[in-house]
Write a structure and sequence with these properties.
two-stranded antiparallel sheet, 6 helices, globular, three-stranded antiparallel beta sheet, 2 domains, Alpha-Beta Plaits
């Protein structure tokens, strides 16, 4: 299997604008592929990438494209598949029986039951396209597509920078959460 590239989100660049969500919903979740028309569609267009807020800070959540892909293992019909060329997992909606076992198996909670489609829905990293729509839409470049070794290098740099930041740990708090009773 190829060394699947994965999303890396630079949280320092993400401003929580949800442009990635909007573009994903329009391009991948709507029939019209047009924002103005997509807003009026039934069922409503849904994104496959989500922006959540953790202690007020934006966190963009995508499918992690797991090496062991528990969602693929949990699928009894073969609807959840791996693309041989890219290693990306994706859903064949024609084979999905809406049992939601992939939803339960996903350790990151990024597979959603899309009852209106009678199939599960998840980010497939737009593997069949030149570039993921969410990444192309991000106005700050926070969403990047990197090889696992590149992600590990960036994380190593982040950890080193955090350890060298004397203001990171202050009396009575830890990473923004109070430890006081």
């Amino acid at each position: 299997m190829p060394d699947t590239k994965r999303f890396f989100v630079d949280r320092g660049l993400c401003m929580g604008c949800k442009t990635c969500e909007l573009r994903c919903a329009v391009e991948r979740g709507s029939a019209s592929k047009n924002l103005t028309a997509a807003v009026r569609e039934t069922p409503k267009a849904r994104p496959r990438v989500y922006v959540h807020f953790d202690a007020g800070e934006p966190v963009t959540v995508h499918c992690r494209q797991c090496d062991d892909a528990p969602c693929v293992s949990a699928c009894s019909t073969g609807a959840m598949k791996l693309d041989e060329e890219t290693g990306c997992s994706y859903i064949d909606p024609d084979k999905c029986i809406s049992c939601w076992m992939c939803v339960v198996a996903c350790p990151y909670g990024v597979i959603a039951p899309a009852a209106e489609k009678k199939a599960a829905d998840k980010c497939d990293r737009c593997f069949q396209m030149k570039e993921p729509f969410c990444m192309a839409a991000c106005p700050t470049g926070a969403i990047q597509l990197l090889a696992p070794v590149e992600i590990e290098n960036k994380n190593r740099e982040r950890r080193a920078a955090a350890l060298n930041d004397p203001g990171r740990f202050t009396t009575g708090s830890y990473q923004g959460g109070s430890i006081d009773g």
